[in-house]
Amino acid sequence: MATARPVRAMDPYAEQFWAFTLSRELRLQRCAACGKFRWPPGPTCDRCLSDDFAWSPLSGKAKVLSWTTFRRGYFPEYPPPHTVVALELAEGPLFISYPVDVEPSDLRDGMTLELRWIDATDKFGEYNLPVFGPPAARG
Amino acid sequence: MAVSFDRARLAPLKDAVAVVGVGETDYGKDYRGARGQAVSKGEARYDSYTLASRALKRALDDAGLKKDDIDGLCVGGTLSGERASEQWGLNPRWSGGGDAAQCIIEATLAINAGLCTTVALVYGNAQRSMDTAYGGARVTGGAITSYFYYAPWGMTSQGALYALFFQRHKLLYGTTDEQLGAVAVAFRKHACLNPNAVMQKPLTIQDYLNAPYIAEPLRLNDYCLINDGGVAIIVRRADLARNLKQRPVMVSGFGWSEENVDATQLRPRLKTFYHGAHHDVAAQVYPMAGVTPKDVDVFATYDSFSVHLLASLEGFGFCKEGEAGAFVQGGRIEIGGELPCNTSGGMLSESYMQSWNHQPELVRQLRGGLGNRQVQGAEVAQYVHDVAGKCKSLIYTRGA
Hints:
Chain A has 1 helix and 8 strands, in the order αββββββββ. In chain A, the strands form 2 sheets. Chain A has a 5-stranded antiparallel β-sheet with strand order 6-5-4-7-8. In chain A, strands 2-1-3 form a 3-stranded antiparallel β-sheet, with helices on one face. Chain A has 2 domains: 9-57, no CATH class; 59-139, CATH 2.40.50. In chain A, a hairpin with a 5-residue loop joins strand 1 (27-31) and strand 2. Chain A is 7% helix and 39% strand. Chain B is of the alpha/beta class. Chain B has helices spanning 7-10, 27-35, 48-63, 81-88, 100-112, 158-173, 177-191, 205-210, 267-271, 275-289, 307-315, 324-327, 346-349, 358-367, and strands at 17-24, 72-75, 94-97, 118-125, 215-216, 229-237, 249-258, 298-301, 380-387, 390-398. The two termini of chain B are 38 Å apart. In chain B, 58% of the residues are buried. Classes of the chains: A mainly beta, B alpha/beta. Chains A and B meet through strand 4, strand 5 and strand 6 of A and helix 6, strand 5 and helix 9 of B.
C-alpha cells in the first residue's frame, strides 16, 4: 500500500507530469519553439506563447535555495516537524520538494541534492513523489 | 519590462480625490467577545456583511454624509457587490472591488473619468467565527497556485512561503531572528497605544524569541491575527470634499505593478524578494505625489507576516537591499522614530483586515489628534501593498 499524500492539484497537464512518475521519470515540458522549460505544467510557453512542447527528461540535479520546517501540523500525512526545500534544478526551474537522508540543520545554501523517488497515493491513484537527497548517500 | 505608465496623464490625478470618511468595527471587543460566550471559532452568529454594514455606517457618520450621497461602490473580496448593494439599498453608477489599495486606485480613476463622485469602499470578513483556513487541506485562495500546488510534498500556507523567503534573506544577508523580531515588537507597541487593537499585551524581544516556531524560521508573532472585522472608506472628488465634517486627506500618488512570471515556482519571491514590482511601483508613486522616501512621515505595509516590512523597506529605497534587518533596529520604525511603521499595530497586532485597516490609520494620522499614538507633524503617509508580488502603493497627504 503506497503512502497517502495530500491531494495533488490536477489538470490535463499535471496528469501527464504525474503519469511519468509511475516509471520514475522526472520530466518537465520544454517549449519546442524556444526551448524554455516550464513548471508547473501548462498549455503554453510563457516566453513565446507556443503550445508546441515535449516532455523532456531532467538530470535530477538541483541546488538548495531555501528551506522551512513546519513545527505546526497542517496535513495529517505530514506530522511536524516536516522540512520542505526550495531547489533550483540544473535545467533552470525552481522546484519545491522535501529532503531525505539529510538533517535540516545540515542543509546549506547552494548544496547539491539529487532526485530520489518515494511512493505515494491520493484520490487520483498511485504515483511516485520526486524528493531529493545528498548524492553521497545514494544507494 | 518597458516603462509604459504615462506620467503626464497621471499628474492631473494627484490630489483629485480625497478620503473624507473612515470607519471600522470594534476589533478588540469583538475578538474578546468571540473567545468568551458570544461566538467561538466556527460558531458564526453574524457574517461578513454584518461587519461591513457596521463599518459603512460609521464611515458615513465620520464623513457627515448620507447613504444617498454615495454613487459608487467597491467591495472587498469576501463580499458580493450585488448582495452588498442590495443590503445597503444602493444602485451605484459604478462599482469595483478588490484589496483596499486597488479599490482606492480604481475609485480615483472612475471619479476622474466622470462616472461618479463619491465612492464607498467596504470590506467585511467574519474569518475567525467562520473558521477560515489559510493553510492545510481546507486552504482557500485558489487564485494563487503556490498556496496549494505543493501539497503532495507537505508544503502549504502563505506563512511557509514567507518562511522560505526569510530563510533566503538570512542566507544571503545574514539577517537574524532578533532583527526580524523588532518588527513584531514595534507593531505590538503601537497596538498597545490603540484601544481598538486586538492585541493589548506588550511583547518583548525575549517573548518573541520564546514563542514557538510555526514554519521555522518564522515564529508565532511573525504571523498576523485571524479576527473578525469590517472597514469602510469614503472617497470623494476633491472639490466636493471641502467643508465636510473632517479635514480631507488627499490621494496624492499611486502605483501598481505585479510580478507574476514564474510566481508558482517562487522565483520572484526567492530570487529578488519581489523587488522588481517594488521598483516599478516606486517609479510611479513617488514622482506622481512629488515626494521621495525621505519625505514619508508615516509608513504602513501589508503585514500578513513581519517579513513584508523588510521587503518593502528595501524595495522602496528606505534602505539598501539586505540592510532592512539592521534598519528596523533601535526604535527607528516605532512612533517617535525616523520612520514609524504600521502605527495602528498593523495586521500583526491590530486587526487582520487584509490591507483595509491600514487606510483608516494613515488617514487619521494625517488628520491629527491621535494622542500618544500621533506621529507629530505627519503630512505624508505611504501604504505599500505586496501580496505575493501583486504590488500597489498609495501616498496620502494632509489636505487643506
